[in-house]
Specification:
Length: about 120
């Protein structure tokens, strides 16, 4: 018969791993020092994202001029079609994500990623 201390070990390890993953969460400023705006190159945000390593629990910070731009999370289909009419209001299970500025999606002020 196993002792109660040895049966608690897997639970303890799980708690430590869970706590450590939260401690490792990173915050990314989208585009580094460039504010969320129409980029000089259509691939600017794609190139920026390809240099990053994102993980579940990380945060993306979008710095933008209030009133000039906004950030919408959209489905893969809406991203591909530059559709801004039905943005995602809350996070759902992991999957492909994208963002648009509602006034300028065709001008490459958009970004996609996978969770």
């Amino acid at each position: 018969m196993a002792s109660s201390s040895s049966s608690a070990l897997p639970f303890f390890i799980l708690v430590v791993v869970y706590a450590a993953t939260g401690a490792l969460a990173a915050t990314f400023e989208v585009g580094d020092n460039q504010i969320w705006s129409i980029p000089s190159s259509p691939s600017y945000y794609t190139d920026w994202a390809s240099r990053q390593t994102f993980a579940v629990g990380d945060s993306l910070v979008f710095n933008f001029n209030n009133g000039a731009h906004d950030v919408l999370e959209v489905t893969r289909a809406n991203y591909d079609d530059c559709t801004t009419s039905n943005p995602i209001a809350t996070y759902t299970p992991p999957g492909h994500r994208g963002t648009h500025c509602s006034g300028h999606p065709i001008l490459h002020l958009r970004r996609q990623w996978s969770l």
